[in-house]
Every structure is written in structure tokens, then in C-alpha cells.
Hints:
The structure is a homodimer. The first copy, chain A, has 11 helices and 14 strands. By secondary structure, the first copy, chain A, is α/β, with parallel strands linked by helices. Chain A has one domain (3-174, 223-301): Ribokinase (UDP-N-acetylmuramoyl-L-alanine:D-glutamate ligase), CATH 3.40.1190. A 9-stranded mixed beta sheet of chain A has the order 6-5-1-9-10-11-12-13-14, sandwiched between helices. The longest helix of chain A has 18 residues, at 256-273. Chains A and B meet through helix 7, strand 14, helix 8, helix 9 and helix 11 of A and helix 7, strand 14, helix 8, helix 9 and helix 11 of B.
Amino acid sequence: MSKLLAVGTVAFDAIETPFGKTDKILGGSGTFVGLAASQFGIETGVVSVVGGDFPESYLSMMNDKGINTDGVEVVKDGKTFFWSGRYHNDMNSRDTLVTELNVLADFNPVVPEAFKNASIVMLGNLHPLVQLSVLEQMNEKPKLVILDTMNFWMDSALGDLHTVLKRIDVITINDEEARQLSGEYSLVNAAKKIHEMGPKYVVIKKGEHGALLFHNGKMFFAPALPLAEVFDPTGAGDTFAGGFAGYLAKTEDVSFENLKNAIIYGSNLASFCVEKFGTQRMEELTADEVKHRLEAFKELTQFDIRLS
Amino acid sequence: MSKLLAVGTVAFDAIETPFGKTDKILGGSGTFVGLAASQFGIETGVVSVVGGDFPESYLSMMNDKGINTDGVEVVKDGKTFFWSGRYHNDMNSRDTLVTELNVLADFNPVVPEAFKNASIVMLGNLHPLVQLSVLEQMNEKPKLVILDTMNFWMDSALGDLHTVLKRIDVITINDEEARQLSGEYSLVNAAKKIHEMGPKYVVIKKGEHGALLFHNGKMFFAPALPLAEVFDPTGAGDTFAGGFAGYLAKTEDVSFENLKNAIIYGSNLASFCVEKFGTQRMEELTADEVKHRLEAFKELTQFDIRLS
């Protein structure tokens, strides 16, 4: 069976939106990636760290979904990473209220033996040297390595980021970060510059404005599905990445044509994530719902022009 | 031959962008709509008004493109509508430096006899009562009436706008204006409310983020083509509308499926408009270039998922 290795955070979130407010609930990039990938019936191993305060029930929920959590280290006398944020009325911008790194501050990911031969590796948004240390634990070169990063590492660890960029295949990044990393305003030019840094595929996430895939001068675009209500955007980007990575692990085809499909699956799953608070929608999501929504994506984007 | 009637401005623009600055050059919504529609080999009649200062060479350029300008009134002792603006570095926002309405202040559009039976009518962004007066001059109900409007009329003539909305088929509007008109933040909900005001098709223009078509709970999305350089965005929205209307006039098929194609053609032509200052790119555009770019749109959006 195909294997996906996902390194990221498993954490607590507390979220305020115009629709309501949560206590500490399950969150984290590794969690959302794992839940999205679990739709594909592959073996997903999550590597992360939590504190002694992390409920076992969360880990067993993930296990029930087929997610392997052997790589989630539990630091008994530590506290789990905690993020709290408040979304503005437009749901597109948010203020961070609290960031407590806790056990994440000393995170040294250890890849379980069973996942050292994973074909697809998803390196969540962590220090570039932490991302690099994961690659160095692999038994063989994975079929495809996907890296997520953010402006924080461009500001604080740009040299290390460039080192790891040379070792990966796909970078996922938002539009502003692509501009910062490349120094180019146009996303077409930004992608070209980022190609030169290493990644042969550049995925630019534009939130409600969809996602762009660039590869050697070729482009593909997947819109976000317009929704009547966006309830909570937390985790949508990670769910997108998890759908993308999970689909590639399932199909084991890393051609440009198949990466297009992976982008569509990422958008598909992300459109569910935002419908409820936290991981709730992803926990209850069924294969039929995903299939049905794939039809909605086709209707949204496919056309048939026959003009003589 | 199919006929398109386009009512709008024929005007002077002076434009500043990070790439340079123009003197008074040819502009106006009617001009851009006409030039876009001229790609379809249909009869396009532009109805507008200019002053005695308007160069005949501009009108003859339009005539050479097959655009009928019999409906462009020339007020000999008046001055042509003039707009001047400066784009910011991101090319997505601009400051208006000058707006001189001049002869446009007393514009009473007169539809030439030959266009009173046009199958497609494009009502450019003008006072709603001026738009209404055009519809009342038609000999028969057109196959499709498209209306463009803006927040200015929502603020100053909302009642009149609602009157004309009951008489039209398609509204083209930007995302912020759709939110203002409907009082709904979600574009899905905004489109639903706007449907109830009259238009059975709602086209929401999102500039560089593409365009959405809504019809009875169905949706279609066309991205803007990502470009290495956007030189001057002036007229892109009108070019989009002209491509949309021109394609519909050419095909005389106003089904939802064919409106999808029209949206793609609108995006196609708009992607050229921004490549040079003012109307320059649209004046020199060839059918082969349009055909070639249609392929780029297909590559950008079409996918083929076969997952068992």
C-alpha cells in the first residue's frame, strides 16, 4: 500500500469567528493533513509532538481513520502547542491572539521505521532545518517531497530555507509569500524564480481565490468552491495540502497531468474543512460526499467550446 | 448577420502606471466593448456621444474593424468625456485623478434604426434611466440584455436601478458591488438575492481573480490568465463584457452551457487588453492569437480525473 509521511503540528486551537467561539479543540497542520489524506485509503504516518495534556481520544480518533500516529511523540511533562485566533467579518483575515509553542519549541521529528520508505513526503510548516532532518532519515529518495513554509522562515532562516528548497519537488506557499521569496510581484515570474531555487513544481495558494500550479512554464488553476457560508477557515490550507499529497500517494503518479488532479482534490477537501469548526467536518466526511463534490468542481470549471 | 448593440462611453483616457504614462488616448466602455466584439465578425453598433474635439481617425479605426458608429453622436461645440487615473504598484488599485463628464452629462442615447432589432444588447455603466431608455427604443425584446453598473448608481439611483434590473437578463458587477447591492457577504448568497431582483444570470467580475457566473443555483468560474506582466488594466472589464456579449451574438445561443463559453471568451480577450496601454493591444489583436490563447485557457482549467 502507498505510504504518505506527514510531518507537522498536532495541536490545540481556540477559534473565534463571527459565528461563534470554541474552547481548546483539536488542530494542527499534521492533523488536518492526516485527516484529508485518510480519504484515500493509503497508509499515512503523522510525525509530530504533543504534551501530556493531549487527550488520547484525539489520537485514537486519528487511528480509527487509519492514520498511523507512532511518530507522534508524547512529552509527558510538557504542554501541547496552542494557537488561538480571531477571524474578522470577511473571514479572510485574522488576528493571532495566542501562540504557545510549548513542546514544539524542541521538536526533533523521528520518522518511524515503517515510514522511512514513504513514496510521498509532506513537510509541514516548520523550521527548514527540522524539515531537512526528516529528509535525512529516509531510506531512499521519496517519489515526491512537498514542502510548506511561510514568511516567518524567510525572515528568520532564509539560508536554511534555500538549503532545503534544493532537496524538495513541490513547494506550497501563499501568494504574498511567493512574492516575498522571489522578489517578483507577478506570480508567473515569482514561480519562475522559485523553480530556479529547486522545486520543479510551485503551488501558490490564494485561499478563497483558489490555487495555481506552475511547472516549467505550464500552469494549472483550481478555484476554491464558492460557498454560501464559510464557518471556520482554520486548517483549510493544510487540508488542501493533505488532499493533494494523499491523492498523489494513492495514484503514485507524479506527472504534471496528475498533479492537476491532485490540486483539484486538495480544493475539494478544503471546501469541506471550512464548513464547520476545527476538524469536525473532516472527521465526519464520507467518500460519497467527496465524490459528489468532485462533480461540483467539474461543473464549476469544465467547458466545451466548439466554435468554427 | 447577428447584431450586438453596445451603449457606453467613447472617451479620452490618460493613464499612469508603474510602466509609464500616456497623453489623452482613446478609451471608454463602448470602445472596449466594440473592439472586443469585433473579433466575432458580427455587426456591432456602438451608441455613445463625443465632443467636437474627438478625432475622426478614432471613429474610422473603429469602422475599419467593422464597428458601426452611426449611433455615436458628435456634439460639435462640446468636449469629449475625459478620465485620468494612476495605478498603484500592485496594478489592482488606482486613484482617479480627473473625471470630466463634458458631453456625457447630457447623453441621451439614440439607437440607430438598423440596431433596433439587435439580438444582444450590452448596456454599459450609465445612469439606470439612460439604460432603460435604450430598452424602450428596441423594436422587439432582444434575445439577451446585459447590464453593467457600479456602486455609484447604487448610492445615487437605487430605485431606478431596481426598475431596470427587472428588465434585463444578465448583470455584470464586481464582487464588492454585488455585496453592496445584495447586502450579503458570500457571493453565492449575493447572487441568489440579485436573481430575485430580476437578472436570471449574475456575472461577478473579480479582476485578476477571475469571474463567476451564477444561474439558478448553478455556478461556473473562469480564471483570469496569469500573466508575467500586466501593463495597463484599463478597459479589461469592458473587454471582458465585450467578449462575452460578442460571443453570444455570434452563436445566438443563450443557454447556461453557452454562457460558460462566453465567460471564457471574455476572459480570453481581457487577458490581451492589459498587455499594452489603452486600446492598443485590442486594435492589433488577430484571430489566431485569440485561438491560441483559448488553448492556454483550456490547459489552465481542464482536467481529467479517473479515480476508481
